[in-house]
Amino acid sequence: MFHHVKELQFNARVSRPDPRFATLLLEQFGGANGELKAAMQYFVQAFSARQPYPDKYDLLMDIATEEFSHLEIVGATITMLLTGVNGELKDAAEQSDLMRLLKGKSEREQLIEEAATGPQFLVLSGGGPAVTNSQGVPWSGSYVNANGELSVDLRSDIAAEARAKIVYEYLMQFTDDPFVKESLAFLMTREVAHMQMFTAALESIKPNFPPGVLQGDPRYTHTYFNMSNGRSSRGPWNQGQGPWGPGESWEFIADPVQEVMQTQGNTQLPIKGTNQKPEEVARFNKQQSQLRSQEVNQAIAKQQNPWSFSGKP
């Protein structure tokens, strides 16, 4: 159940109209890393988390709802940045006020040229926000990543918040309006907070790596293939203990071609870098399968399965 409160989560303001920056800000309204994408992604992900992880369902729905409030802030800011423009567009008899707003003919021509890259903005939307990015490309459901495996979804969410944070950081370089910068700083900071929330939620799921149920084949989990010629870079991603505990390490394959030839296309590759045996992996896979299945089924009543826990079913 949603309830709209008319006050914005943050009191968005602008100092003056700025049609060009309004166009740029569309990126966070209907772009691939914008607020609508985030809201829909967390909203969709929440459904499959409802029964196995009701606490994470609550988290995802809360953040999804907050993202809708951020969409409202962005939309309100775009509208305020177009103050004067959206009204003058409807004045078919007198265009001089619009020209004065845009500081003359050259300014108006430049705005028209910029609008041509995203014709839905101004021309089709009448001066309000459109569900497109800054180039006029319509928002798409393909932006939404919802895998149904919570450890995968949370990693996608951390990355989504990181990308949105960087977009706000870039946007702040294209405006000198202190009020707009204040709003963008609030929105950017909430992306940082959400990253921390999703990271904490992921850490609360044990185990969460590798994602899913099945473990990796120990013949290949600790192997690094040197797939380029010339000087090789070494680091904790291909040498030493890496992310594992004592007694485990990376196995660096300096010549992958020779390795493939000697192991019949890696089908006869011996286990190196780990003491884990195939039978141990199979046993753990079975345990994980039972655990994940139990997490889903334990919340399902035998006779009824109400979505809401409170109130009458």
TrEMBL record:
Mn(2+) binds at E35, E67, H70, E161, H194. Residues 266-276, 285-313 have a biased composition (Polar residues). Signal peptide: none annotated. Keywords: Calcium, Manganese, Metal-binding. Gene3D superfamilies: 1.20.1260.10. Residues 266-313 are annotated as: Disordered. Ca(2+) binds at D58, D62, N226, S228, G230. Its cofactor is Mn(2+); Ca(2+). Binds 2 manganese ions per subunit. It comes from the Bacteria. CDD domains: Mn_catalase. The keyword Calcium applies. InterPro entries: Ferritin-like, Ferritin-like_SF, Mn_catalase, Mn_catalase_dom. One of its GO terms (molecular function) is metal ion binding. Belongs to the manganese catalase family. This is Manganese catalase family protein.
